């Protein structure tokens, strides 16, 4: 739950809120939902993200329809009831990964039972004005579903000052939370170092929580260690103890629900392997072996703007056991041929041009793409990055002077990228081609396409999209006219929207652009095929090969 007034994250600047994560159903949401999908390997929907804008919009629309029968509409009970209703409705929806379906590509798997647990994350800080209605809604919700079905977990900072851990911030935030009617069952303490037993005891005394229900979530060498850290402290047992008894102070064995809630010890060997591999790749002795990946973008001042790309690269690195280092390059700098950024680009083993909007830094991206093409540096362009590689090819290979996108120049002679006709131009919220869409591989390139090879020689794939502009279909035959030149190996179901652009492997080891965002579906242990291919080629490893 995000307390901001926006309907969704779609119109937010990456500098303001980081990456906009896109779901199968086209929902534009906070990047936190991407973290949930990756860690839990689930598929969420737009309804899994609640914003104040959505809640107020639903209440106002209901009021306009006469849904409140003339009553005075207020924050309590109408806004809080809408929040509770939304949570209860979404909590019963399956989140298992759906199979690809040509008729209904976003439908959930049928016959799947509802989830056992629903995690409700309230963003912000206790005491924030905008989060007040949500805290009140959750106070009411615990009585709606019953205390035995509700567990409050409070995440609090334990700062370290002068080498000493401080519990006061936790004490004060819990006191404030309890004053609002919610008493935490579990407390998770964020700290640079493991939280001491002394601090746990002090927090227990002042926060009305037993010491065994206080968990240390301290800094670790890599993010994938966090679940193991929680597991080793018995966090899962403490959580089930709350649900089994309705009160954390009672013994688990005294509950009639003990048997049904007794956890099966999970097999975490695969996850431990991920942690060990990441620790190995991060060793100082591997620093000289790291591949340098230059990310040439518009929003490099805030790495969260490309959060899913970072994770997708990490997943590929882990799977191939190749250490990597991401070098951030502000594309605006590259228009100066003498800038230091060019040294980074020229030293890179691979170059990525990521998504973006607007004309700022476009010329720098085009220059980096040209360098990658002419010097046979593995290149991957995503969304805008694909459009950039097409513009660069048209300008410098086909010699179409001034070729560009109508997003940057509507009066250009060669409009190689154009606004999608079906997308309205008079608004910006949720008016793009969004979500899971089908890409069909062109049969005439069936045996030559590197992208198709990476996708296990599939005839079609499903990936997530977020774009207003597309390759100008009318110019595609002219763009493909040169033998051994750029070719569009994938298109949508209408065969008019170009989805994948490539140079042949005998002309370039890896030069690929995708209109879709493969980073959104990458998972630990299930790395995105295109990121695997990029890292494999850059490392001099053979591409994964599959038989039909």
Which descriptors apply to this entry?
548 residues, alpha/beta, nine-stranded mixed β-sheet, 18 helices, 19 strands, 33% helix, globular
Description:
The protein is α/β, with parallel strands linked by helices. It has 18 helices and 19 strands. The protein has helices at 14-17, 31-40, 52-64, 75-91, 132-145, 168-179, 197-207, 225-232, 235-245, 258-261, 269-281, 307-320, 341-347, 362-374, 384-396, 450-454, 476-479, 529-538; strands at residues 20-22, 28-30, 153-157, 160-161, 164-165, 186-191, 214-218, 291-297, 324-330, 350-353, 379-382, 404-405, 415-419, 433-441, 460-467, 469-471, 487-491, 498-502, 511-514. The chain has a nine-stranded mixed β-sheet with strand order 9-8-10-11-19-18-17-14-15, sandwiched between helices. Helix 4 (75-91) packs across helix 5 and helix 14 (362-374) crosses helix 15. The relative contact order is 0.09.
Per DSSP E runs of 2 or more residues, the count of β-strands stands at 19
Strand order across the biggest sheet? 9-8-10-11-19-18-17-14-15
| C-alpha geometry | globular
- Helical content, roughly? 25-40%
Low-confidence stretches: 247-259
Q: What share of residues are in beta strands?
A: 15-25%
Number of helices: 18
What is the SS-derived class? alpha/beta
Largest sheet: 9 strands, mixed
Q: How far do the termini sit from each other?
A: 44 Å
What is the gyration radius calculated from CA atoms?
Answer: 26 Å
């Amino acid at each position: 739950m995000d307390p901001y007034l926006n309907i969704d994250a779609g119109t937010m600047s990456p500098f303001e809120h980081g990456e906009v994560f896109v779901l199968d159903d086209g929902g534009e949401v906070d990047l936190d939902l991407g973290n949930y999908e990756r860690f839990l390997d689930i598929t969420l929907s737009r309804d899994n993200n609640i914003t104040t804008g959505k809640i107020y919009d639903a209440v106002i629309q209901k009021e306009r329809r006469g849904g409140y029968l003339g009553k005075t509409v207020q924050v309590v009970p109408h806004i809080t009831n809408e929040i509770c209703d939304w949570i209860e409705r979404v909590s019963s929806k399956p989140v298992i990964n759906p199979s690809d379906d040509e008729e209904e590509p976003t439908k959930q798997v049928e016959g799947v039972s509802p989830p056992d647990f629903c995690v409700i994350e309230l963003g912000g800080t206790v005491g924030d004005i905008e989060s007040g209605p949500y805290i009140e809604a959750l106070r009411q919700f615990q009585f709606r579903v019953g205390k035995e079905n509700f567990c409050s977990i409070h995440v609090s900072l334990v700062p370290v000052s002068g080498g000493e851990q401080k519990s006061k911030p936790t004490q004060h935030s819990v006191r404030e939370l309890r004053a609002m009617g919610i008493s935490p069952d579990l407390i998770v303490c964020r700290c640079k170092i493991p939280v001491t037993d002394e601090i746990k005891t002090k927090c227990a005394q002042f926060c009305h929580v037993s010491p065994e229900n206080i968990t240390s979530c301290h800094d670790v060498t890599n993010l994938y260690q966090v679940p193991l850290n929680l597991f080793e402290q018995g966090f899962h047992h403490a959580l089930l103890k709350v649900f089994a008894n309705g009160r954390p102070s009672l013994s688990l064995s005294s509950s009639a629900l003990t048997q049904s809630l007794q956890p099966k010890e999970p097999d975490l060997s695969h996850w431990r392997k991920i942690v060990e591999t990441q620790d190995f790749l991060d060793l100082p002795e591997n620093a000289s072996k790291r591949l340098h990946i230059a990310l040439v973008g518009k929003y490099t001042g805030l790495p969260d703007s490309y959060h899913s790309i970072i994770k997708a690269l990490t997943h590929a690195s882990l799977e191939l056991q190749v250490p990597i280092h991401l070098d951030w390059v502000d594309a605006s700098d590259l228009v100066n041929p003498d800038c230091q950024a060019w040294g980074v680009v020229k030293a890179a083993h691979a170059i990525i041009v990521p998504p973006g909007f607007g004309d700022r830094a476009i010329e720098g991206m085009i220059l980096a793409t040209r360098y990658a093409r002419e010097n046979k540096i593995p290149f991957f362009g995503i969304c805008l990055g694909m459009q950039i590689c097409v513009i660069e090819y048209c300008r410098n290979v086909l010699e179409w002077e001034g070729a560009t996108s109508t997003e940057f120049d509507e009066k250009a002679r060669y409009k190689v990228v154009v606004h999608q006709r079906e997308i309205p131009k008079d608004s910006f919220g949720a008016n793009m081609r969004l979500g899971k869409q089908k890409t069909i591989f062109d049969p005439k390139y069936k045996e030559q396409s590197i992208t198709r090879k990476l996708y296990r020689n599939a005839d079609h794939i499903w990936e997530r999209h977020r774009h207003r502009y597309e390759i100008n279909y009318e110019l595609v035959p002219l763009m493909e006219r040169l033998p051994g030149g750029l070719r569009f190996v994938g298109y949508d179901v209408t065969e008019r929207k170009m989805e994948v652009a490539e140079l042949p492997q005998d002309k370039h080891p890896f030069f690929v652009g995708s209109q879709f965002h493969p980073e959104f579906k990458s998972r630990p242990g299930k790395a995105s095929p295109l990121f695997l291919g990029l890292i494999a080629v850059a490392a001099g490893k053979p591409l994964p090969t599959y038989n039909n």
